[in-house]
């Protein structure tokens, strides 16, 4: 049966059934349809100025002779979100610093900053470099406790630690303690930077939101480079306009698929999901990939709610079989809401495959289909256990829930829309559940379950990881959450290790790491995805709506 034969895309939904929960409507609606693209004359004017400034900054990077000056310039460029313009220059500068043995410095700020920047670029560097700052008892020297700048640099470096790097574990505890004590004595701007880092370390923050927030802070820095500040603002403005055009496209696509009309019980969070993908990769060259992946995430979120909130077990068994067979034949045997979902799902995959076929990359979609099938089966297993009121062991839970968090499918999806040449063995690697994927999924699952646990303990809902831990260890919910948070910290260390040593280019590894950072943003204290009226609305408004330039 063809798409046209099977159903009208705007066919009415079945008689209304009450879902297990009621979600808040979208905060944004059709807001981004009103976006007016930047005039081409303005784009050209900004690009011309960006190119002029870029040449000057490249020269400054190449000519920097002072070690600390070079490190701080690289750090500022990265913090302002414009490092993608200077990848070769930054790599060359760090290669020179690594080759020349910067470890001879006796300044903790210099050593810690260099350590973090080198590790971020996957240069091999041992944490033993910090031994020189320890006393005979194995503690950090007393003289360091009052050097706020050095403490902050060490604190940030400590969060790139890997398993068994005890010195970095001690550094994180030591610096957190004394930075908190020094907060009241700091310069206001530095106190702001420090407070934000104590809340979430730099390496775990999403780059785009961090760049936007840091632009305001950097503008108040006494040592700022006016040239770099201008460059960063112009670039932010230009990239923001690209992101807004993407949202316009996605809004029109979503409306044309009549998703809200036919699946009204599902969470309508397309803007939040696009923001999610900006967290994975924000650079202009990934515009197509963001659009593709956001569409897939929209459908995945709906599929989650179909299994979790709306479908009966009998309906969901039919849906799982339909997705497994990946064909529209017999789709009319499903309820109308599932007919509509399947039609949109298959049409979206076919459209993506058609686009990729022009580049001889349609093979990528075969990997993605397999991941979507795995996801549907995981959702169904959860629903079946929920209906049985079965609380699985931690081991049983993770076997299913590390798949049902949707990150394995999403990691594969992030590769699909990239223009870079990506061999099939990279897709084989990412779909075989390597350690970096496992660690990121664990962070995703636990952070999601801890914040969503209480409001999801209704009806036949699948038990959370918190419930499984509580059952296995005969402890309270609070004790379980505290232990799971320790396990999340261990997973971050594994993630760092795999980031450093995975034998794939950084442009493939970074989105996997960055998506763990997105979980830190969305689920650190509460479920900011299901509840759209809190801090996430403010974050999206800051990044996507508020202009960075007063005039141009």
Automatic annotation (TrEMBL):
What GO molecular function terms would the record report? magnesium ion binding; terpene synthase activity
Which positions fall inside the Terpene synthase metal-binding domain?
256-494
Instruction: Please name the InterPro entries in this protein's record.
Output: Isoprenoid_synthase_dom_sf, Terpene_cyclase-like_1_C, Terpene_cyclase_plant_C1, Terpene_synth_N, Terpene_synth_N_sf, Terpene_synthase-like, Terpene_synthase_metal-bd, Terpenoid_cyclase/PrenylTrfase
- Ranges of residues in domain Terpene synthase N-terminal: 27-184
Sorted alphabetically, the Gene Ontology BP terms of this entry are: diterpenoid biosynthetic process
Q: Which UniProt keywords apply?
A: Lyase, Magnesium, Metal-binding
Q: Does the keyword Lyase apply?
A: yes
The record's section on Pfam families has: Terpene_synth, Terpene_synth_C
TM regions (residue ranges): none
Annotated protein name in UniProt: Alpha-humulene synthase
Annotated source species: Dendrobium catenatum
């Amino acid at each position: 049966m063809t798409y046209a034969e099977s159903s009208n895309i705007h066919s009415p939904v079945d008689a209304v059934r009450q879902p297990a929960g009621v979600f808040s409507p979208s905060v944004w609606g059709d807001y981004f349809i009103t976006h007016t693209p930047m005039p081409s004359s303005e784009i050209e004017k900004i690009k011309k100025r960006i190119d002029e400034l870029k040449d000057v900054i490249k020269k400054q990077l190449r000519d920097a002779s002072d070690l600390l000056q070079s490190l701080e310039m690289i750090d500022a460029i990265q913090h302002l979100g414009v490092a993608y313009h200077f990848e070769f220059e930054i790599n060359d500068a760090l290669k020179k610093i690594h080759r020349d043995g910067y470890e001879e410095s006796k300044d903790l700020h210099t050593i810690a900053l260099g350590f973090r920047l080198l590790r971020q670029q996957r240069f091999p560097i041992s944490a033993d470099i910090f031994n020189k700052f320890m006393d005979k008892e194995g503690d950090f020297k007393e003289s360091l406790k009052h050097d706020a700048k050095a403490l902050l640099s060490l604190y940030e470096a400590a969060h790139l630690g890997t398993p068994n790097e005890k010195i970095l574990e001690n550094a994180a505890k030591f610096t957190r303690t004394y930075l908190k004590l020094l907060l009241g004595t700091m310069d206001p701007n530095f106190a702001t930077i420090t407070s934000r880092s104590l809340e979430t370390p730099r390496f775990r923050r999403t780059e785009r939101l961090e760049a936007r927030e840091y632009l305001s802070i950097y503008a108040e820095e006494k040592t700022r480079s006016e040239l770099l500040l201008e460059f960063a603002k112009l670039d932010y403005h230009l990239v923001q306009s690209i992101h807004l055009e993407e949202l316009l496209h996605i809004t029109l696509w979503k409306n044309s698929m009549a998703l809200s009309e036919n699946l009204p019980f599902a969470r309508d969070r397309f803007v939040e999901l696009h923001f999610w993908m900006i967290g994975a990769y924000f650079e202009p060259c990934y515009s197509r990939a963001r659009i593709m992946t956001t569409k897939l995430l929209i459908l995945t979120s709906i599929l989650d709610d179909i299994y979790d909130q709306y479908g009966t077990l009998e309906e969901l068994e039919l849906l799982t079989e339909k997705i497994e067979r990946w064909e529209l034949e017999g789709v009319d045997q499903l309820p109308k809401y599932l007919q509509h979902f399947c039609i949109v799902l298959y049409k979206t995959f076919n459209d993506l495959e058609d686009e990729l076929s022009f580049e001889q990359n349609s093979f990528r979609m075969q990997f993605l289909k397999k991941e979507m099938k795995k996801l549907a089966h995981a959702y169904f297993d959860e629903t079946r256990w929920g209906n049985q009121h079965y609380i699985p062991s931690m081991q049983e839970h993770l076997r299913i829930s590390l798949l049902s968090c949707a990150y394995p499918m999403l990691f594969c999806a992030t590769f699909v829309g990239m223009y870079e040449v990506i061999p099939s063995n990279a897709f084989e690697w990412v779909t075989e559940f390597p350690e970096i994927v496992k660690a990121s999924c664990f962070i995703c699952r636990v952070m999601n379950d801890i914040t969503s646990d209480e409001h999801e303990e209704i009806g036949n809902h699948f038990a959370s990881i918190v419930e499984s831990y509580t059952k296995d260890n005969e402890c309270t919910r609070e004790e379980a959450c505290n232990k799971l948070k320790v396990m999340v910290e261990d997973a971050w260390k594994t993630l760092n290790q795999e980031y450093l040593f995975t034998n794939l280019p950084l442009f493939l590894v970074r989105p996997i790491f960055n998506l763990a950072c997105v979980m830190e943003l969305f689920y650190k204290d509460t479920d900011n995805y299901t509840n759209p009226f809190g801090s996430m609305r403010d974050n999206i408004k800051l990044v996507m709506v508020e202009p960075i330039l007063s005039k141009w």
